[in-house]
């Protein structure tokens, strides 16, 4: 296995390759949308890692169609579980035409033996070093089936992502990454499986240099899983951002609000919003998912502290844990109102392959659908413990519509008037999404009972 070498840029005398990088949609009949919240960070980085004598094009299928008859030497597809079905279809279509296909991302990393049935090569884990090796092998006609690291690659020396290749129809187009990995290993999350349980950091000077390539960017997005996981690094980064006078948003934890100095520095550096995994207003759920560092009784106080510094809080909530019954939806909605939460992302507990939840629910025979198209965090694919699947699905649709109703959006927009030009378009986007309620997968019709009833019923 070739060791990771950030200076490796391919053979300058190598053959020219025409490469297509694809972020697939979720189905082959989907309607294109006018805007998408933000791009996937992996494809612009892959383009930057590609030797300069090759030609690269990026397509986000949510925004544009794929030309299957185009003359491509290699198609690289990044795959999440919800897009796996569509990704496999795209891969199969290109392979029918004699085009080589490489699959990578979280889903192929979890299920490489499934993915290789639709590809010539599968990149397992992070792509740095492996992508360059794969391209070299392709030039020499020696593609391997699997490419994997012995350990996660370092983040120093990465090239600047090719954001110039992205479609311009993103609400947040200028996205960067400063850290990878997470030590918390939450039971429903695939981050630690894919990127490891140790924080790794890009040198701050390299992050600032990359941002400097986009002087006209008004707002930046840091697609980190926890930008404040290492306070020492965060302090250095925030101080370096201050002279740039940019606005930015990222993902972190409420613990930032417990560090007054770091919170003040984040605000001064331009932070206007932080995505926070609150997950549940039920403390028992948090303990079972190894997220007991979240304390529900502190949520409101810490959210208020973010607001004191002009930082909006985007709270993530997951429904369907074993301690949840139907009352969880109104309890959560009441909390959202009392805490003046600015944004919320609602998800149905989804057993992603490779996670602890997937292993548990598989062993308990609670999963009734393995249709990856339904693994989009908006469909129920398993038996909840204290609800029927239909109750969980209905509750998810209910709280989504309520929180993103126009009166509530108006109220929050007035509260966040300083950032209304960012806040309102994003809110209207989610209002539009919530107008189309999700329905249960067909497989649920034959198994609509709760797990408790399932165990007691002889007919199931």
How would you portray this structure in words?
- 34% of the residues lie in helices and 15% in strands.
- It has helices at 42-49, 84-96, 106-110, 112-115, 130-139, 191-195, 204-211, 231-241, 260-268, 283-288, 299-308, 328-339, 356-363, 389-403, 406-415, 420-434, 451-456, and strands at 18-23, 55-60, 74-78, 100-104, 121-124, 146-148, 175-176, 179-180, 200-201, 219-222, 247-252, 271-279, 312-319, 343-348.
- α5 (130-139) links the parallel β5 and β6 (146-148).
- α8 (231-241) packs parallel to α9.
- The chain is globular and about 60 Å long.
Alpha-beta classification: alpha/beta
Major sheet summary line: 6 strands, parallel
Summed over residues and divided by their number, the pLDDT gives a mean of 87
How many strand segments?
Answer: 14
Proportion of helical residues? 25-40%
Which strand order does the major sheet show?
Answer: 2-1-3-4-5-6
Name the beta content range.
5-15%
- Radius of gyration, in angstroms, nearest whole number: 22 Å
Distance between the termini: 49 Å
Count up the helices.
Answer: 17
Low-confidence stretches: 1-13, 450-460
Principal-axis shape equals globular
């Amino acid at each position: 296995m070739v060791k990771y070498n950030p200076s490796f840029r391919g053979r300058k005398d190598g053959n020219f390759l025409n490469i297509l990088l694809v972020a697939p949609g979720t189905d082959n009949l989907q309607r294109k949308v006018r805007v998408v919240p933000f791009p996937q960070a992996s494809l612009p980085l892959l383009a930057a890692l590609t030797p300069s004598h090759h030609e690269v094009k990026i397509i986000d299928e949510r925004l544009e169609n794929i030309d299957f008859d185009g003359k491509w030497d290699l198609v690289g597809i990044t795959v999440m579980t919800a897009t796996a079905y569509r990704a496999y279809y795209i891969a199969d279509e290109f392979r029918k035409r004699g085009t080589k296909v490489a699959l990578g991302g979280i889903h192929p990393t979890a299920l490489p033996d499934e993915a290789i049935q639709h590809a010539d090569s599968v990149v397992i884990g992070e792509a740095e070093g492996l992508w360059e090796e794969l391209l070299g092998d392709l030039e020499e006609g020696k593609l391997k089936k699997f490419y994997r690291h012995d350990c996660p690659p370092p983040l120093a020396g990465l090239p600047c992502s090719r954001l110039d290749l992205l479609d311009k129809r993103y609400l947040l187009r200028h996205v960067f990454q400063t850290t990878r990995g997470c030590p918390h290993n939450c039971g429903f999350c695939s981050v630690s499986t894919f990127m490891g349980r140790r924080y790794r950091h890009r040198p701050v000077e390299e992050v600032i240099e990359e941002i400097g390539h986009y002087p006209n960017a008004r707002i930046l997005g840091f697609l980190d899983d926890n930008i404040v996981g290492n306070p020492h690094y965060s302090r250095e980064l925030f101080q370096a951002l201050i002279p740039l006078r940019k606005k930015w948003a990222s993902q972190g934890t409420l613990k930032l609000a417990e560090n007054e100095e770091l919170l003040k520095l984040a605000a001064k550096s331009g932070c206007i919003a932080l995505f926070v995994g609150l997950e549940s207003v039920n403390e028992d759920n948090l303990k079972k998912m190894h997220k007991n560092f979240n304390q529900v009784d502190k949520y409101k106080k810490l959210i208020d502290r973010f607001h004191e510094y002009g930082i909006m809080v985007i709270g993530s909530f997951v429904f369907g844990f074993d301690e949840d019954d139907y009352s969880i939806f109104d309890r959560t909605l009441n909390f959202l109102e009392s805490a003046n939460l600015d944004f919320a992302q609602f998800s149905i507990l989804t057993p992603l392959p490779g996670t602890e939840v997937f292993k548990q629910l598989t062993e308990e025979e609670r999963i009734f659908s393995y249709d990856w198209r339904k693994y989009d965090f908006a469909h129920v694919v398993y038996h909840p413990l204290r609800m029927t699947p239909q109750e969980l699905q209905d509750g998810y649709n209910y709280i989504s519509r309520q929180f993103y109703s126009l009166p509530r959006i108006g109220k929050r927009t007035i509260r966040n008037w300083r950032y209304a030009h960012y806040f309102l378009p994003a809110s209207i986007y989610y209002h539009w999404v919530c107008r189309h309620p999700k329905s249960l997968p067909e497989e649920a019709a034959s198994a609509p009972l709760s797990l408790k009833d399932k165990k007691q019923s002889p007919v199931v």
